[in-house]
């Protein structure tokens, strides 16, 4: 939408003032051990003092300072990290072999006992890392192995251990009062040496890293919540990498500095299946036919999003490759002037615009549409209580394990904790249970797509688009990671030319 550009330009003066304080050093300044330092502008400052048991763990992962036992490949399959191999020894027990020769930034060595310490503390953390919600997990040393046991069979345990919230830190990271500090206690190619509250963080290259030594001398992180300021940092050469450039700013940047990354996040129209007009499947099908996804993507997102073919999108490439055409859908009925309430929230800037466009599309199809827009904190309770006929939500479709089953279960099953469509369909529940029980790999993926098809067949949710995150990279940067899961960003290979 080109009307945004003047607003963006008007913000440049304020952004420049912000930049002056954020990036004091000259871009590309070299470290004492050789190689330029990378200047990084991040969107969100730490919320929990960089505790690895919180969402701050993803910053530690993106800085390559803390590492996990397991990593995920592009398809979401488990790959070696600090553990080089694993095997399931019973329905509930897994044995892990740890990598030899790993030393933490404080000089201590990785051992099974160190891993047990981290995992045990994670299970006792308050709040508990979300990857462990509903999971009873214990860890123990058995000979030279790490053994992890769950209360119930968990076919995704290796993937679960890939969560940045379960990063393994040196024992010195954990204080007696329960506080955890990642400063100088990780094992990655960059050593966190200083954190200045919610303003900045400094990392230096870890010369004793077990893997490929970092090409950059270090990372200078500035937390810049203002999106215009982050974009201006790239434009002015004050940052080498900037997270989450707003759509409104992308057109103002050199195209060579813009990278669009598909996100596992879907903008979906949820329909109340329990009461009101959308209790009728044929009326829900009328909405399905009325929504013009291309118009929404082209107008609101300036084509910087992907038109949805399903609930799961291109951030999970196997869903695009394996999805089949859905058959057996209910034929669209007529709106017949039905009055509906369409709601969304303001916290994500594009959603009110999406709501206005959807309102017009539904009115064109014969509905009478009232619109409600509030801050999320003030609308969530009514949303979960089913007080709206339709709700537009930007929803993450995978959790920390890289698996979408938890999303399907919470949003679309009879007992789902986030079932705003109020859907209760035995066919859907059975399909989700089968996906949940399936072993990782092709079998599980097929079951997930079958569950997705079962949900779509009900028209309880109309997926509209899959969001992208726009990352700014200076033309001098090589090797930054464009990661849909937002776990990786700067690695050993990232450097300034």
From TrEMBL:
Signal peptide interval: 1-20
InterPro entries cross-referenced by the UniProt entry: Peptide/Ni-bd, SBP_5, SBP_5_dom
UniProt keyword Ubl conjugation, yes or no: no
A Pfam family matched in the record: SBP_bac_5
Domain Solute-binding protein family: 79-417
GO BP, sorted A to Z: peptide transport
UniProt keywords, alphabetically: Signal
Record-given protein name: Peptide/nickel transport system substrate-binding protein
GO cellular component: ATP-binding cassette (ABC) transporter complex; periplasmic space
Organism of provenance: Lentzea xinjiangensis
